[in-house]
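OP here, attaching both records as promised.
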Amino acid sequence: MHVSKNNSEKYYPVIIVGGGQAGLSISYYLQKSGMDHLVIEKTTVMNAWKHKRWDSFTLVTPNWQCDLPGHSYDGDDPHGFMSRDEIIAYLERFAEKVNAPVLENTSVNKIVSRGISGYRVETSSGIFLTDQVVVAAGGYHEAIIPRMAERLPETIYQLHSEQYRNPQQLPEGAVLVVGSGQSGAQIAEDLHIAGKKVYLATGDAPRCARFYRGRDVVDWLADMKYYDMPVHEHPLREAVRDNTNHYVTGRDGGRDIDLRKFALEGMELFGSMSGFDGDRLLFKDNLTENLDRADEVYNNINMRIDDYIAANNIDAPGAYSYEPVWRPGQARSRLSLADSNITAVLWCIGFRPDFSWLDVPVFNGMGYPQHQRGVTSQPGLYFIGLPWLYTWGSGRFSGIARDADYLCRRISDFSVSEGAELKSA
């Protein structure tokens, strides 16, 4: 029941901010428990998946890991990797099943605490009052583009990874991809396969094997219970939330991404980009370090799988260690825009969070929310869908159901205790 507090305010016991897979997962469990709620979505349900992925995008984890509430992977290729369009179709079927009470095309402008009376939610569609708020808006809000981008010539076509769709989108000429994380490495590969001349400014992202000793690495890690490890048991603790994702791909049935192999085929690799002097792009002298570190992580993951196979006496193909197929020569710290014929720059250096609309004291100095398994220090305020909210899968299709179920039980407990307090007052 939506009780009108006055002519302009409506009340819901729970308001969910964000209509992606995380927000709809919360709605799924709230509906099961009979709790009235409203999902507020800035654009439309699942918008990010429909408009912020390039054409050749695929999952990097096997399809069987898609396990949203009441909607496990329902195709016929559990060890394959869904394409962008298949992912969208999967999510649309999930949204149809949940049938959440969603208010679309509505921006949340400000949320403030009302003390023991809950929260005031100011939106482009009016003001709402609520006892509890679940922030399901993710943590990738503002595309990071460095200030040096302003100094590049106007003739250079610049875009962020979230704007990239396909190689045909770019002008004729070479392209510089800045960043070798999951998006940067896959987009560089996409351009390389299309025959574009690619310059890649690498970063410190790790990589992993796609298949090892007869199975997908994800299958091995699942058996090893890595994906069940809670953040407080991880060797890095909460610091793991800042880690860059390993680069690998599910394209064409899945394979490794080996930047050294690309270099043999004509892609030119550099260290991390550090500036622009008016004519030349500047890079750090850390290409060898970046490549070696990525390969070290690759081999370390495989060695942990070796240990697991040995400890459990599993019959599997033989072990091996990756050996570099190419090594950098003399480091190059400068690259002339004119001489290289670079006509486009793709910034693949991630996102920063923007929770400026949430006026509640739960953030650290970097703007990230502080919480324990999504539960903040502010009564009735929760987060879901963030990387390593509780486990590795918290920001992915594989772990959202567990997080949503847990938070919904906390929401229900809060409602019961709040009602008891009101009765005794």
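Record two, same layout:
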Amino acid sequence: MDEHIIEALGKSKIVIKDGKIVNIGEPKIDYCPLFHKHRNIEKLTKDKIKENIEFRIKDFGMCTAEREIRMKDFLTFGISEITSSLIEENIIDCAVMVCEGCGTVILDNPEIVQGVGGRVSGLIKTSPIPEIIEKIGIENVADPKNTTINQVEGVKLAINRGFKNIVVTFAGCDGLNEIQKLKDSNPDVNIYIFGVHTTGLSKKDASELISNCEIITACASKYVWEICEENNVYKVGESVPIYAITPKGAEFLKLRLDKIGGVKPKKDNPRIPEPLI
């Protein structure tokens, strides 16, 4: 029996076994602008979450052997869209990300980056699904036997594979020191950290992740919003901003902006996630 645990739709803890939802926790936020815009969900409830997860399982096979792994751009401006654009433009060679049924993976195809990262976020734990591993390529899975989520091991594998410009997504602070050691011991390799799934981070963890990132998504993180806004960090987006922490991060955001035709006019009083936590 395979089991997959994700935090989604207001950071509700969702458990899926053999393609069926077996548990849905209470969401920690009530409103997400992205789900309102794209799925017309005005209030996050357990019923709405169940409906959305069942839709994903049916639509593209989330957490099942039928998982579709390729997709064109979904959001105008998200972490997976930025990453896929960087690969398309040969700015980076690969991305170390996370996929259900695989754990940590190395991706160098922009459509697979988008299909994996744009469809499922907040993966906490997963178990092997051989069919997904085969689609991704067993050589691209850091731990195909146990499907662990370990971004440091993913970066090590990418370096050993000869990649020189690597994006790695981080949802917390575990492993950041090890990534710095990899940077120090591999001066010919560029490793760019993208902060994701930040809702609920403590102030200490938010500060540490921000200090190590090129870019970071605000999600519904009280402290990512607070720290970045207080420091007037360059950002794209109003309802759920993505912040560029470094000059290289700003380059990445601007490249994506150029690809989609620039910034849309700002909305008056844009609605943001409620509450920030």
